[in-house]
Specification:
The protein is of the alpha+beta class and about 375 residues long. The protein has 13 helices and 17 strands. The protein binds adenosine-5'-triphosphate and magnesium ion.
């Protein structure tokens, strides 16, 4: 069967764009599907506008592409299975495999699957009625999570006591599907990019990640190796492909898995500049069934560029960041609109002082692009 495209992407955001850039360097043809116009991916490769939840718009992508992959975990597994049928394509035409997607996209099913396989993580129960099951099984403080569709902390709340729980009752009373989870008093958060196929497995270096207002702020090398538990987690959901694994390290040194993402991950963006293979190149190789490259980069750090209040002058920010430190690399996703809290780009640097350098370059960027420093805009 001859295909018009090598790889199709469901979703057209920055993760699709950076994966497509990697694929294009290898001469591969790509297309993306997104409900929005002028997405980061559509600026650099063919794109179609359409719903990523509708089998009718998914099926032509399966029909035209040798392999299809995900840019986010929100494409319903059911719609994908139907689209594959409509296009006469086998389940293996989606990488990551659709069964692992089905588990991951329901945070409760994901947690139950990990727990059953013996992967350490916070205990979770479904939320319904007055939440009494959660109170007896989990207790306070308690983390409330939307089972479906959360990102950047948008589906996460913390209830400190029964008054809080009552206040949040409307969330699951309206039938949205929520769960309650043990609050982990972690000392830090970690992340690992894992790749697995039928015969091979591997993991990028373990990174420490710091969140600010629930959005990833900076990422830098952790002095710990969490790859074993991260690979175990991906295998527990029957994974085949490249995954981001988020973990907590508790104050007594335990590693707990928070959640998996069936795609490249924000915490792996440093790999664009670390000198070894990037997570995007590795993702493309895994999608095509090619051997993954060895991981031989150097220490690197990343700071996210997050949208702030007010108008943005990106070119002034870029020029200020690079002028302040010519060794940093600025990546910009080409999103049409900058909104507070939105991931707009990131800055990478390598070397032992990389974390300090990406932070100072980012301050210069914010100062010039938004006319304010992050400290002034957000005292938190
Ligand atoms: N059980 C928990 N105990 C303590 N903090 C938690 C817990 N679960 C989540 N958090 C905090 O909330 C953040 C967001 O939670 P989670 O990763 O589950 O949601 P998300 O919206 O899918 O996030 P993202 O898309 O940013 O990865 C975590 O990175 C962590 O800082
Ligand atoms: Mg998360």
């Amino acid at each position: 069967m001859a295909f018009a495209y090598d790889i199709g992407f469901l979703g057209g955001g920055q993760l699709a764009r950076m994966s497509i850039q990697a694929a294009q360097r290898m001469g591969l043809l790509c297309i993306s599907l997104d409900s929005a116009e002028n997405t980061p991916a559509s600026q650099i490769a063919d794109a179609v506008q359409g719903s990523i939840s509708d089998p009718e718009s998914l099926a032509p992508i399966f029909g035209q592409c040798a392999v299809v992959t995900l840019e986010n975990e929100f494409v319903p597994a059911k719609a994908i299975r139907r689209a594959m049928q409509m296009a006469g394509r086998p389940p293996g035409s989606l990488i990551p495999n659709v069964d692992s997607l089905a588990i991951i996209q329901d945070k409760l099913l994901q947690r139950q699957t990990l727990t059953k396989a013996g992967v350490p993580g916070p205990k979770a129960v479904p939320l319904d009625g007055d939440g009494s099951l959660a109170v007896s099984q989990i207790g306070f403080p308690m983390v409330l999570k939307s089972r479906f569709g959360g990102y950047d902390g948008k589906g996460v709340r913390v209830a400190m006591n029964s008054d809080d729980l009552e206040q949040f009752n409307h969330l699951w009373a309206t039938g949205g599907g929520w769960m309650a989870e043990e609050f982990v008093d972690f000392s830090r958060e970690l992340a690992v990019i894992v790749f697995v196929d039928r015969t091979r497995e591997g993991a990028f270096p373990t990174m420490e990640t710091v969140q600010h207002n629930h959005v990833c702020d900076v990422v830098f090398p952790a002095d710990i190796d969490a790859s074993q538990v991260a690979i175990q987690a991906v295998k527990a959901v029957g994974g085949n492909g490249l995954y981001g694994v988020e973990l907590f390290e508790t104050k007594d040194g335990q590693l707990l898995v928070n959640e998996l993402a069936p795609r490249p991950h924000n915490t792996g963006h440093y790999s664009l500049d670390w000198g070894g293979i990037s997570q995007f190149d590795q993702h493309v190789r895994i999608c095509l069934g090619l051997p993954p490259a060895p991981l031989d980069g150097v220490e690197a750090a990343m700071a996210n560029l997050i949208g702030q209040d007010g108008p943005m002058n990106w070119r002034r920010g870029l020029s200020a960041a690079i002028s302040s430190d010519p060794a940093v690399r600025v990546h910009w996703y080409g999103k049409e609109e900058s909104r507070p809290g939105r991931k707009m780009g990131h800055i990478n640097a390598v070397g032992s002082d990389a974390l300090g350098r990406v932070k100072s370059a980012r301050e210069r960027f914010y100062l010039e692009a938004f006319g304010l420093s992050p400290q002034l805009s957000d005292p938190g």
